Amino acid sequence: MIQSILKTKRINWTLTGRMACLFSIAAVFGTTSMAVDLSAVQWITPNPPVRQELTSCVHVVEFWATWCSPCKAQIPHMQSLAKKYEDRNVIFIGLCEDRSAGKVSAFVEKKKITYHIGLGNGLSDSLGITSIPFALVISHKGEILWSGNPRDRQFEETLKLAVNAAPKPML
């Protein structure tokens, strides 16, 4: 399913309350348009992204889990990228596939993760993502520019291009 979704290369964000972030990827199957909803059922980190942030900047969305060794190895890299781009209008969101908010919260605190973390509630399974970590780089226009393993060299190259193409943040 994710391959069909990524063919459209378009994502639209909406916000439903402070505890849930809901966004849709429009997938076109033949002449029928179908929206696939992705949601964080609960935010683990404080201050979830707000609507203006979600509709006007570059996004990195990563699917991961606390039990996934490659995911855990990727955290310092994501942290450094989030720090590197914090003043460049880039939002990093990690959607954890674990079911226990307490376990994820303790993990986030232990690892000192500062970018947005929410529970994905099995989202990667419903999208047909078969391997994690799995990330999306989404432009400020809502276009999916890249998808795959965030350890791939193309991930950071695409992120840099997306940031350079985006409007500069207002101070």
Briefly, what is this?
34% of the residues lie in helices and 31% in strands. It is an alpha+beta fold and 171 residues long. The strands form two sheets. A six-stranded mixed sheet has the order 4-7-6-5-8-9. It has a three-stranded antiparallel sheet with strand order 1-2-3.
Q: On the 0-100 scale, what is the average pLDDT? A: 79
Strand content: 25-35%
Structural class: alpha+beta
Distance between the termini: 40 Å
> Which bin fits the share of residues in helices?
25-40%
| Unreliable segments of 5+ consecutive residues | 1-37
Shape: globular
N to C succession of SSEs: HEEEEHEHEHEHEEH
What would you report as the Rg, rounded to the nearest angstrom? 15 Å
Task: Give the neighbour order of strands across the main sheet.
Answer: 4-7-6-5-8-9
Counting H and I runs of at least 4 residues, what is the number of helices?
6
Would you kindly provide a written description of the structure presented here, covering whatever features stand out?
- The chain is an alpha+beta fold and 171 residues long.
- It is built from six helices and nine strands, in the order H-E-E-E-E-H-E-H-E-H-E-H-E-E-H.
List keywords for this structure.
171 residues; 6-stranded mixed beta sheet; 3-stranded antiparallel beta sheet; globular
Secondary-structure map:
Layout: H1 2-8, E1 11-15, E2 21-29, E3 32-40, E4 42-43, H2 51-56, E5 58-64, H3 69-84, E6 90-96, H4 101-111, E7 116-119, H5 123-127, E8 134-138, E9 144-148, H6 153-165
Parallel strand pairs: 5-6, 6-7
Antiparallel strand pairs: 1-2, 2-3, 4-7, 5-8, 8-9
